[in-house]
Fold:
Amino acid sequence: MGRLANKVAIVTGGARGMGASHARRFVEEGAKVVITDLNAEAGQALASELGENAMFVQQDVTSSQDWERVVTEAEKAFGPVNILVNNAGISVASSFEAMTEEQYRKIIDINQVSVFLGMKTVLPSMKKTENGSIVNISSINGLVAGAVGYTDSKFAVRGMSKAAAIEFAKYGIRVNSVHPGVIETPMVSEGDAVEQIKQFAKFIPLQRIAQSEEITNLVLFLASDESSYSTGAEFVADGGLTAQ
Structure:
């Protein structure tokens, strides 16, 4: 307990799944957390559950205006931002031939452009703390090939994290990317590929997909001062999948 004491965090895509897991644990560890999501009902419910150290702000992560509003409200409620977790994202399985330009641009906007906007917008606030941590959620498909669009965006998140880490280091701000394998989240369990995911788990050395809390443990480490000498790095949590 207390690993994030006196810190202010923003977690995007925080209403459900992995983002909600991060938000819960951050509050438990002493942080004040701004949860953002398009899903206002779920976001408000989670913020109410977590109490006075959490608040919800509805956000379209592809909107620069929304990002400005989120950071402004975070500072107004809790003070300068120490931690940003760029967690919001979508997954679309499609071939090159089948994917439309509209679909492709939507994936890039949500998974990639939002990360750029988040880092750019939070920087002035985080500079005030001289002790910031940005955790960008990529994927194993930021390391190895997967579906078009999704893979492209997740490789970009990995690259942006490195570029930002070099530029932000002079401000005492660290930037790292996290690369989960398959996680038990609503995006997986409620999708069309449930049976495929179960079959895929057989190829994972640990023989199972991960729980959100297992990724949260890694995100918490990177958000905390325990990872004070880690920046510009990839942190993989995939049950050994990419080690094969």
Notes: The chain is about 45% helix and 15% strand. The first strand starts at residue 8 and ends at 12. The chain has one domain: 8-236.
